[in-house]
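Example for tutorial group B:
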């Protein structure tokens, strides 16, 4: 698989650390292409900061994304909260809070970011690139939040809301469905149990079969449960529930 164009330029910078190579990375045309594709009027030199991980910033003494990510997290929370209030004006605060948590989290936001191919544009340091840090959910979700912050600053809340919700709809179409709560509760509880016991998060895999999906639950790098289900979501929920009922947890 060929590398993204920006990553080719990063590798050049890693091997020949100089100002011209750094400038090419920070002014890469793929950032302008992203802005054009999504009809964003953010200055390119400011937009690239949303993609600049602290490891790259410290290595090359340039600004990074952290403050934008901090701001963007609040904007995303506001956008999702407003949409939940619009969709479920008579629902309880407790359920809305849980549903918001099922959307505004590392896993869901990383799905949005991966759909947008943010991983191809993230700038990381030499060691972090070798570890494929730019492919990790936490880094992708942080980058998405930093981008939302830039959109809010230059376009306002209405435009930022429309753009984020359209991305969410395209990448996670059922994000706002209330029946996600049951799945989220079981999976979130399993995450807590796995972190407490193994210091690692559980993960799920799914293979397509003629009769549905063969879903597997991995904990501590081992498959602890599997089954065939009509959908991946149902499978993940049931396997999480089964794992929680297992005395090992």
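The residue assignment follows.
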């Amino acid at each position: 698989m060929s590398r993204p164009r920006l990553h080719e330029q990063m590798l050049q910078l890693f091997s020949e650390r100089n100002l011209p190579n750094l400038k090419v990375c920070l002014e890469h045309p793929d950032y302008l292409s992203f802005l054009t594709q999504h009809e964003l009027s953010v200055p390119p030199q400011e937009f690239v900061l949303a993609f600049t991980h602290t490891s790259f910033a410290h290595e090359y003494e340039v600004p990074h994304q952290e403050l934008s990510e901090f701001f963007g997290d609040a904007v995303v929370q506001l956008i999702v909260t407003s949409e939940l209030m619009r969709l479920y004006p008579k629902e309880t605060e407790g359920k809305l809070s849980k549903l918001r948590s099922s959307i505004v989290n590392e896993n869901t936001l990383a799905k949005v970011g991966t759909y947008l191919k943010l991983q191809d544009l993230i700038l990381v340091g030499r060691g972090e690139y070798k570890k494929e840090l730019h492919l990790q959910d936490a880094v992708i979700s942080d980058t998405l939040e930093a981008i939302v912050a830039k959109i809010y600053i230059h376009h306002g809340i209405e435009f930022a809301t429309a753009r984020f919700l359209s991305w969410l709809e395209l990448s996670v179409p059922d994000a706002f469905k209330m029946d996600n709560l049951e799945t989220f509760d079981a999976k979130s509880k399993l995450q807590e149990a796995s972190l407490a016991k193994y210091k690692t998060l559980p993960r799920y895999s799914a293979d397509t079969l003629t009769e549905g999906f063969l879903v597997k639950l991995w904990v501590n790098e081992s498959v602890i449960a599997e089954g065939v289900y009509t959908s991946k979501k149902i499978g993940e929920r049931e396997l999480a529930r089964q794992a929680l009922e297992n005395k090992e947890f």
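Strands lie at 203-209, 212-219, 222-229. Compare this with the pattern of hydrophobic and polar residues in the output above.
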